[in-house]
Design goal:
Blueprint: E1 2-5, E2 8-16, H1 18-23, E3 25-30, E4 33-36, H2 39-54, E5 58-68, E6 93-101, H3 109-118, E7 125-126, H4 131-140, H5 149-156, H6 160-166, E8 169-173, H7 174-184, H8 194-200, E9 204-208, H9 212-224, E10 230-233, H10 239-244, E11 247-251, H11 257-262, E12 265-267, H12 272-289
Parallel strand pairs: 3-6, 7-9, 8-9, 10-11, 11-12
Antiparallel strand pairs: 1-2, 2-5, 3-4, 5-6
Helix pairs in contact: 2-4, 5-6
């Protein structure tokens, strides 16, 4: 944005995943002044982020950088719409702080998830939130009821790999999924996806910090295991996964037109519990036909 100072015409502002924004910064605002980041600040930052995330709050990090006038004169043509063509620095920023948002699930969602489990339907959460936030929300809505692999690793002082094998509840970071896909490259088709399959066979699963492409991989992995897959979503980025699913479900109020076009079903109320009611009615019809 235009932000004239003695040696700058523009100021770059960044917001996003707190851990990624923090990595872009070597300075921070403290008591109204820009100061060089000290080693112990990282621990303080981690503690604040952890406290907010454990409450199920969505956390955003903010940073800024005054761009030098010599390199970025008035009228400079910025390219910020594409990561590959971006022409501003993404290092050396000054960290401004964290903001947390509380977006509580609807009151009837926890009960609806329990009804799904009782009906033999596994609910998998796929989100862009950071793992700690995702786990906290999943516990609130009954997707996770046991200790997660991370909690087991911390409590029993074992590796996360050993804890993952032992746990019934796991939270998989998008980076872990990307790494598993890279390891599959070059393998015969029959041998691909074994790591994903082992995760999907856990009874309680959350995927965090996922990309739209990874949602499609997760759907394909479930189908490869022989599951009938239903996918809910509302954005344009959700449409490939919605289309790939056996039953694509879009939101009628907040959903984009692209998501609705890709879906087999549109929820007029945007309410997860409506899916459960639909399943109940469908099973009644099926029983009557038998």
């Amino acid at each position: 944005v235009e932000y004239p100072t003695d040696d700058s015409e523009y100021c770059l502002f960044v917001k996003g995943a707190p851990e990624r924004v923090w990595k872009m910064c070597d300075k921070a605002y403290l008591e109204g002044k820009i100061q060089v980041v000290e080693e112990n600040w990282r621990k303080a930052y981690d503690n604040v982020n952890l406290t907010l995330a454990k409450n199920g709050e969505r956390v955003l990090g903010f940073a800024k950088l005054h761009l030098p006038r010599q390199s970025y004169p008035k009228g400079f043509n910025f390219h910020c719409m594409n990561v590959e063509t971006i022409n501003v620095p993404l290092k050396g920023l000054a960290f401004l702080g964290l903001i947390s948002l509380m977006d509580p699930p609807r009151e009837n969602v926890p009960y609806s998830v329990l009804k799904c489990k009782a009906a033999g339907i596994k609910v998998i959460m796929v989100t862009g939130d950071q793992p700690i936030t995702a786990a906290a929300i999943a516990k609130k809505v009954n997707i996770i009821s046991d200790r997660t692999a991370l909690e087991i690793a911390e409590e029993e002082n074992i590796s996360i790999e050993a804890a993952t094998k032992k746990a019934n509840a796991i939270v998989i970071h998008g980076d872990q999924l990307a790494e598993a896909m890279r390891e599959d490259e070059g393998l015969p088709e029959a041998e691909r996806g074994r790591q994903l399959a082992s995760w999907l066979q856990k009874p309680q699963i959350v995927f965090a910090r996922t990309s739209p492409a990874q949602k499609l991989i997760i759907v394909s992995g479930c189908q490869k295991l022989g599951h009938v897959v239903a996918v809910t979503g509302d954005g344009v980025n959700d449409s490939p996964a919605i289309k790939k699913a056996d039953i694509g479900i879009a939101m009628g109020i907040t959903g984009s037109e692209v998501a609705k076009d890709a879906a087999d079903m549109v929820l007029l109320s945007d309410d997860f519990s409506a899916i459960i009611i639909g399943v109940e009615e469908g099973r009644k019809l099926f029983d009557n036909f038998k």
